[in-house]
Structure formats: structure tokens, C-alpha cells
Amino acid sequence: MVMRSPFFLVLLGFGVSVATYNLASLVIHSQNSDQAMELAGILSFSRRSDPVIQRPDGLKKSEGKRRLFHVALTATNAPYSKWQCRIMYYWYKMMRDMDSSDMGGFTRVLHSGSPDDLMNEIPTFVVDPLPAGMDRGYVVLNRPWAFVQWLRKAQIEEDYILMAEPDHIFVNPLPNLSSGDHPAAFPFFYIKPSENEKVVKKFYPEEKGPVTDIDPVGNSPVIIKKPLLFFAWCLLVIESTQSQLEQVAPTWMNISLKMKEDPESDKAFGWVLEMYAYAIASALHGIRHILRKDFMIQPPWDLKVANTYVIHYTYGCDYSSKGELTYGKIGEWRFDKRSYLRGPPPRNLSLPPPGVPESVLTLVKMVNEATANIPGWEERV
């Protein structure tokens, strides 16, 4: 048996301590400097790119253990955002533990910079808004910046993340619809990169390929892989692997801000600007989505609920007393979230008249059930 001198053991211990300290400092410095660089170089594109991944054919449903995803939605502290978040969280809790659900934890990423009165009701992570004036009155620009901060600071147990929005209601238990390196997303009929090729090419260089490689998606709803970090202490090295969302989020943020500064793209994309930015950012990183039309419905245009998973109530629903759609004209019966900008809708909303689509009737019934069961519904604004 070979004996080591005390001096040798002390020297070895000191060397390991120094190496560990240097590695830890490297990680902390990298995190801090990266966050500073995102705002300092706010208009630069992401530093990383991946090879283009072709759309998969005949993807099979994954078998084996459940692939849980963390539900994350960005929000403000405005009354309009709060009441939608409360309804969304209620239905998340109702669907989370049902058969075929792969829902894991839940986080409201609050980008108002300070806590609000829903902190004890809804799991919440507070992040900073963009610097004053940078969103140019388009509050949605805070969404990608909120995700950048949350991904860097939060501890997320699940391997996947569902990016959702306050005006989403889970109408059926949601499984993990992604497969391998292909996130799952809803195809929006109004995201049309090919019809806006001239503007899109300002942000998607020719060498990246045709604009048809850009999926017709926004960032929500999307189920996508989360960031991973591996420590190989035995070799005194750190191997960091960035997953899809961590790669895409800074690029999505930068493109959104650059688009808003550009009059042509701002005019062309309007209120869906940051959705186009996410679609382009994903394509720049070689990401192709599995497009699931059953992911979400949008009343009043989608009529049936059937086996879909999410109701998105972004459009107003206006009907005559005979159940005829009067879109663009205030109906004798209506439900429009914008009618409640300053406070929550009352409990027990009137049901629509006979003849309206199932999707609209289901939406109002689910809003009523949530508001009837959420404590202090009309007391908080």
C-alpha cells in the first residue's frame, strides 16, 4: 500500500478547490454577462444556429413513461390579465391529474417587475419588464424577454414546457403532443410567411433557405423542450447543452424588437408581430414543429369542441337572439373578453341563445363554472 504524504493530500485538496471555484465563477459570470448582453445588444441575432431539421413523416406516439410538461404563461398585473389567469389556472387544476394528461407544474411569469395580489393563489415568478418605452406601446413585446429571464433563473423540474396564454382554457386533458426534437404547435391561418416574403427576408437570410421552411405558428400554444445543464465534476469540466426553447427565446426577443422598430414589418404584421418573430426565430435554429389543428379552437370560427384541448377566446362572440353570428356588429347576446378591461366579468353570465355553436356555449359554461368556484371572484381587480 502506497502512503501519501500529508503535504501531497493538502496540495491535492487545494487544487480541487481552486478548480471548483473557477468553474463556479465561470458559470455565474456567464449567466450575468449573457443577461447584460441581451439588453445591450438587443438588436443582434442569436449567436447560435442549428442545422435544419426536416419535418418528420409518420411520427409515432411515444411510449413508456409520461413526458410531463410545465405550463407557463406570461402576464401583467392589469385587471384584464388577472381575471383571465385565474380562470386559466382553475381549469389547469381540473385537467392536470386526469387520465391522458401530461401536465406538470404551472407558472405565471409576471413581467410587471413586482409581486401582485395573486401570488398566493397562482404559482408566480416575477421578472422585469422591458426598459420604459422599448415596447412602443405593444405590451406583448415583453413576452419573449419574460421567457428569457424565467428560463435563466427558475428551477423547472419537467423536461418540456407548454407556452400558454391567459385567454386559454383547457377543455380536455392535454398530453405531450411533441415528439423527439419536434415541438408541437397550433397552425394559425393568419401566419403566412410566403405571402409576406419580402418583409420576412429582412430577418430570415437567403442562405437559411426558402421562407417555406418557416412554420405558420406563434409561440403559443407550443410544447417544446426546456434547457438542460450537465456538470461533469469528476473531469473538472462543465458541459452545457441548450435545448430548443433556451436557444430560441433570445432570438425571438431580438427579432420582435427589431421588427417593431422597422416601419414596414410593423405595418405588415401588426398585432401578430411577435408571433411572426417566434416563427422566424425557430426556423433560424432549424426547428420544425408538428402542426396540430386539434391543439386549439378559436370560437366563434371553430364550431365544435370534440377531441380538441384548448379554447382560445381571443375573438368576440356576437349573436342575434336567433343564434345568428353578427361578427363585427355588437350582437343582442355577446361575450367578448375586451368588455372586461377594468375588472372581471360577473358570475353567472347569460348563456347564448339556441343555435349558437357548441364551442361558444362550452366557453361560456366553463367561464361560469370557474367564476362560481374561485373564491372572492368579484372582489379582486
Automatic annotation (TrEMBL):
Residues in coiled coil: none
Top-level division of the source organism's lineage: Eukaryota
Span of domain Hydroxyproline O-arabinosyltransferase-like: 69-378
Pfam families, per database record: HPAT
InterPro entries: HPAT-like, HPAT/SRGT1-like
Membrane topology, from the record: Single-pass membrane protein
Protein name per the record: Hydroxyproline O-arabinosyltransferase-like domain-containing protein
Source species: Platanthera guangdongensis
